[in-house]
Specification:
The chain is of the alpha/beta class. The protein contains 16 helices and 14 strands. The longest helix has 24 residues.
Length: about 400
């Protein structure tokens, strides 16, 4: 499958089977075609590839390591490994595609980068890329997330970005995307909209996936070098799904590697109390593309919630939607409390404080390790938890405080 997979998906119109595409206003069609054509041309050029490789090695600090969790493995069974994207510059996988998108913007002669952010990691990464290339940067963020992720808001401002608070609707990620798109529509000629995940109209799901493939390429080589075999199971959290597509991309053709995408189960699986899009959604259109979508009674994007700000999105990447239908990936859920428990567990046993998003994947790995104690499990630890510590302590306290 993988031999021709990346040439087949998406097709020339940006579809992964029935999902994806570009359902956008006519005013944006020409601009999106320019970005698509430029990406196909520039991304294959020696100069672009060489510059991006140099950035990854000398600026981002890639490759990030694969690490064996000895104490967690002893406690839960199995052999648990982490792909340490928390050690990528800025503390998450997001810089992988942000440097690529900003480099593309530079080649296109754009002057400004615009984006949305939920947990703030994409915002920090894009602000970092803008500073590196000398571009203006505007980040749209829901007011709820601004409060939850205060450290990342400050980081964005220090890096020179303008943070635009979004105060309508649920004041979280979906509304931030709405706001950023509106701002982009005002001046598409001089700005580049840099989507933060494998979502949005074509070519963004393809571009972000391609830039994130470095995670899977590295992880596959590193794991084989460490163990002499491939992992039995690969686990990643899924909101929009960029970190998951990054690592899954290297194992799609390996029947011996079971892939697991972990969605936020929130406080319950009742409407409005979770963001389990693939698990409970149905096909629909949001932000210019077709995907599995949580919907209200009118068929509009539904209310969502997660303790992790980077996961509370009612849609999901179109490629994930296709992979669900093809049964290439197993999608499941982890609730808020399970994620919080995993957050503390990996911190206390391995000295690694994960992002709350990543803690969902860690929590699911614990379940797999207990159910399949003789297997190897590779978790994409997509980000570090510096941004979450104030929120977690304020809302949940330390474990010992409850004794």
């Amino acid at each position: 499958m993988a031999n021709n997979y990346f040439k087949e998906y998406p097709n020339k119109d940006g579809f992964f089977k029935e999902y994806g595409g570009a359902f956008i206003p006519p005013v944006l069609e020409t601009e999106m075609e320019k970005i698509t054509d430029a990406y196909y041309a520039i991304s294959k050029s020696h100069k672009f590839i060489s510059e991006l490789r140099s950035i990854r090695k000398h600026y981002q600090g890639r490759p990030t390591p694969v690490y064996f969790c000895n104490r967690l493995s002893e406690k839960y069974g199995g052999r648990i490994y982490l792909k340490r994207e928390d050690l990528n510059h800025t503390g998450a996988h997001k810089l992988n595609h942000c440097m690529g998108e900003a480099l593309l913007a530079k080649y296109l002669g754009k002057k400004k980068l615009i984006a949305e952010t939920g947990a703030g990691q994409h915002g920090v990464a894009l602000a970092t890329a803008a500073a590196y290339f000398g571009l203006e940067c505007e980040i749209h963020m829901g007011e709820v997330d601004i409060i939850k992720e205060h450290p990342n808001v400050i980081r964005m401002k220090i890096l020179g970005a303008t943070v635009v608070p979004v105060s309508h609707g649920l004041k979280t990620l979906k509304e931030a995307v709405d706001s950023a798109f509106e701002a982009y529509l005002k001046d598409p000629l001089n700005t580049m909209y840099c989507i933060g995940s494998v979502v949005g109209p074509h070519p963004f799901p393809m571009m972000v996936r391609d830039f994130q493939r470095i995670v899977g390429i590295e992880a596959r080589e590193q794991f084989f070098e460490m163990t002499g075999e491939l992992p039995d199971k690969v686990v990643a959290c899924v909101g929009g799904g960029s970190n998951a597509m990054g690592i899954f991309s290297a194992f799609l053709d390996d029947a011996e590697c079971a892939l697991y995408g972990v969605e936020p189960g929130g406080t319950s699986l009742k409407y409005g109390e979770h963001a389990a899009t693939i698990t409970l959604g149905k096909p629909g259109i949001i932000h210019g593309f077709k995907c599995y979508l949580l919907q209200d009674e009118k068929g509009e994007p539904g209310a969502v919630y997660s303790v992790a700000s980077g996961l509370d999105y009612p849609g999901v990447g179109p490629e994930h939607s296709m992979l669900k239908d093809l049964k290439k990936v197993n999608y499941s859920t982890i609730n808020d409390q399970e994620a919080i428990d995993a957050f503390y567990e990996i911190s206390r046993l391995e000295g690694v404080i994960p992002a709350l998003e990543s803690a969902h994947a860690v929590a699911y790995a614990f379940k797999l390790a207990q159910e399949f104690p003789k297997t190897s499990i590779l978790v994409n630890l997509s980000g570090r938890g510096d941004k979450d510590i104030d929120f977690v302590i304020d809302k949940y306290g330390l474990p010992e405080d409850k004794k």
